[in-house]
Amino acid sequence: MKRRSITLAAMLLAAQAALAGPLPVLPLAQGISPLAGIGGNQAPWTIIVLLTVLTLIPAVLLSMTPFVRLLIVFHFLRQALGTQSTPTNQTLIGLALVLTFFLMQPVGLAIQQQALMPLEAGRITPLAAVEIGSRPLKTFMLHYARQKDVALFLELARESRPRTPEDLSMRIVMPAYILSELKAGFQIGAVLFLPFLVIDMVVASITTSVGMMQLPPVVISTPLKLLLFVMVDGWNLLVGSLMRSFG
Question: Disulfide check for 176: which of 117, 149, 201, 224 has CB 3.0–4.6 Å away?
Answer without folding.
Answer: 149
